[in-house]
Each structure stands twice: as structure tokens, then as C-alpha cells.
């Protein structure tokens, strides 16, 4: 697999993470660290993501992803592998 590093300013931008496992956690933490407004969409969240949501650092929606969730998102991360 060939990777393409991308540098973008996400501060204050709406970023959506689809998934609730460890990979989603790492991506959400990185987005929060860089000032994004992060939304997590998944029927279930790992304990660490639950804590992140409870702290108010991210918004969580405990449900299946819908295509309309992407409207207005600056960045979307699909992290559904665990």
C-alpha cells in the first residue's frame, strides 16, 4: 500500500469518525489534538472513546452510520475494523 501524507488545517472544522474501536480512538484523539470538532458515529464505543465523549472532547452518536452524516464534514475517517 502506498501512503500519501496530507497536511490540512482542521482547527475548528467538523470531522467525522465512523467506528468505535481502538483505531477510531487513535484517529479521534489526533483530530482533537489538532483542534477539530470531532463527531464519532458507531453503535458501540470502546471504553476509552466513551470517556472521551463523557469529557465533552467529542460528540458521540450511538447508532449506525447514515450517508447524510457526511454532509458538511471537512474530514471523514472510516475506522470500522475493530
Account of the protein in words:
The longest helix has 12 residues, at about 20-35. The chain has 2 helices and 4 strands; from the N terminus they run E-H-E-H-E-E. Helix 1 (about 20-35) links the parallel strand 1 (about 15-20) and strand 2. It has one domain: NAD(P)-binding Rossmann-like Domain (Rossmann fold). With about 80 residues, it is of the alpha/beta class. The protein has helices at about 20-35, 45-55; strands at about 15-20, 35-40, 60, 75-80. The mean pLDDT is about 95.
How many whole angstroms does the radius of gyration measure?
A: 12 Å
Number of helices: 2
Number of strands: 4
Number of domains: 1
What fold name stands as the CATH topology? Answer: Rossmann fold
Summed over residues and divided by their number, the pLDDT gives a mean of: 94
Q: Strand-residue fraction?
A: 15-25%
Q: How are strands sequenced across the largest beta sheet?
A: 3-2-1-4
The CATH homology group name:
NAD(P)-binding Rossmann-like Domain
CATH class: Alpha Beta
Tell the overall outline. Answer: globular
Strand count, sense and closure of the main sheet? 4 strands, parallel
Task: Using the 3D structure, state the CATH architecture.
Answer: 3-Layer(aba) Sandwich
Low-confidence stretches: none
Structural class: alpha/beta
* Helix and strand pattern: EHEHEE
Query: Level of helix content?
Result: 10-25%
Short description:
With 82 residues, the chain is an alpha/beta fold.
Mind sketching the topology for me?
Layout: E1 14-18, H1 22-33, E2 37-41, H2 47-54, E3 58-61, E4 75-78
Parallel strand pairs: 1-2, 1-4, 2-3
Amino acid at each position: 500500500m502506498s501512503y500519501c501524507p496530507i497536511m490540512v488545517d482542521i482547527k475548528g472544522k467538523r470531522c467525522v469518525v465512523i467506528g468505535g474501536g481502538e483505531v477510531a480512538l487513535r484517529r479521534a484523539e489526533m483530530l482533537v489534538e489538532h483542534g477539530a470538532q470531532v463527531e464519532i458515529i458507531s453503535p458501540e464505543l470502546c471504553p476509552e472513546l466513551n470517556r472521551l465523549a463523557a469529557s465533552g472532547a467529542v460528540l458521540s452518536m450511538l447508532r449506525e452510520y447514515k450517508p447524510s452524516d457526511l454532509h458538511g464534514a471537512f474530514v471523514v475517517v472510516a475506522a470500522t475494523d475493530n
